[in-house]
Amino acid sequence: MTDDANLAGLRDEIRSLLAAALEHNQQHVDDIRRRDELHVAETDRRDELHVQELHRRDDLHAHEREMIVEALETRDIIGQAKGVIMAALSCAPDEAFALLKQQSQHENRKLVIVATEVANRAWKRPGSKYAETAPKGGDS
Question: How far apart are CA 79 and CA 46, in angstroms?
Fold first, then answer.
């Protein structure tokens, strides 16, 4: 073979090696892109789950807050009703509360409504020195 033929063969071999390297590089780039797309999709999925969990927790906290506010708003009237029952039946606070709770369940009404009625009836009972100043209106 002549030098020109050897040189042409070498050029062909180098071109072939470069083409193979470029092909391998392109496959590598395509593989990285596919992996990146999978990672982005997984990250998006996890972000969505995280946002859903945050919303669930916010809803739970709002519900708990509502329950605490309601408990704070109703504790005075329940305490008054307990006092009426304790005075009328000469019982302990726990027993008075248990009686209120039992009546509430028996009537299938909220405890605060039963307690309000007990307190209002004690306030408005005949012969009470406060009967004349008792609030007018229904038993609410």
Answer: 48
